[in-house]
User: Fold this.
Amino acid sequence: MINLAIVEDEDSYASQLAEFITKYQLESGNSFNVTRFKDGDEITNGYNSRFDIILMDIEMKFMDGMTAAEEIRKLDQNVVIMFITNMTNYAIRGYQVDALDYVLKPVSYFAFSQKLERAISRIRKSESNVITIDVSSGVKKLDIDNIFYIESEGHNLNFYTRGGEFTIRARLSDYEAQLAQYNFFRSNKGYLVNLKHVDGVENGCCHIAGKQLLISRARKSDFMMNALTDYMAGL
Assistant:
């Protein structure tokens, strides 16, 4: 099931997009769960990262589509965003929010179906490498490859990623088994590191994202001889 949001203030265009999705669903065999929003502020208010694709109108009354997309990207790096517009001068800003494409009004079914197929292809490439975490502002999807390391601090976990730092209430053991298949290794009781981002090992520490993280004596042999060696051999 593909969760898709239509963010469009004009009922006629929203209805047309819904009809196109129904037609595409019958032709392709894909199954969609469609939710309609009438303005950018509706989808951003309490956004919870449950959508795979967002079809976003740009010109809306309360919050325009570009602003809404910028807010969504703070919480969700993986959702596929496509803009619905009759204006092409938003291309540069679209790249800044990693928009996949633009659907130009008036919308033709053939062009729409081709762009929707492209969006689905992107979802299938990324869906196996994403985890979802509960943050204070809602739910956030994280690309596993973009996580540098996870730090345990009291009852909290700090995620250090390419997209910034995020803190949640959880235990490191909650993620240790889940991320083991993605080459994460527990270097000591306080750190779970992504071997992909280890730049080197020196003086009992691994260098990752400009930080030196201590490797405990009990885990040093496993880290050097097993985890890191096996990872490098698999490249």
Observations:
- DSSP finds seven helices and 15 strands in the chain.
